[in-house]
Design a protein that fits this description.
The protein has twelve helices and five strands. It has 219 residues and is mainly α. The strands form two sheets. A three-stranded antiparallel sheet has the order 3-4-5, with helices on one face. A two-stranded antiparallel ribbon has the order 1-2.
Amino acid sequence: MLWWALRQLRSGKPEKREQAAVKLGNRRKERSVQALVERLDDRGKVGLKREVRDAAAEALIKIGEASVKPLVEVVEGQDRTVRKLAAETLEQIGSAAVLPLAEALDDQDQDVRRIVVRTLGRIKDEVAIEPLAAILTADMEADVRKMAAAALGTIRSPESIQPLIKAFRDEVEKVMLEAVAALGQIGGLRLQIISSATTPLCCAPIRVHWAVSGRHSFR
């Protein structure tokens, strides 16, 4: 019964908590989501209990979309270990997590924004392109912009081309170089950077060759 499994999820014995999480995952009931999310931070006498946490994460993946919002709240929390597991769980849930995750891109903590950007890239849904492009253009932290460029490359959609080209003019070279690398991941695309000893890389004219639309030059 559901109530019994929820009660066992609070048992003092980790093996019973693990078994309860497995049962709740098999039942796929929305009512169990919050209790399972709390078990992502499962702790015993010797610290975090990985088996219980993994079972809770797997259960949340099985439940699916109803798990997304509470998991995003965990990603925005303070515990980095639990954040990571929540992000991995959202990645496995997939496309249903994209828009709720994108809402967390305005978090003041750059560590949160980094993990959200990475997770959106790994989900590989084109819905994430617009919010990632906005981060690539506007985020104050170069590391976050660099990760946004990498995430757009991972999605490998032609829709990412224009935002990545705009990033060629980023004031931080590592961001621009990541944008170049990301474009290289998009099929049918070839870059030609025209530079010389007197022209800084960030200011060099760039030609983008794409089999579908022909050649375009950007300065």
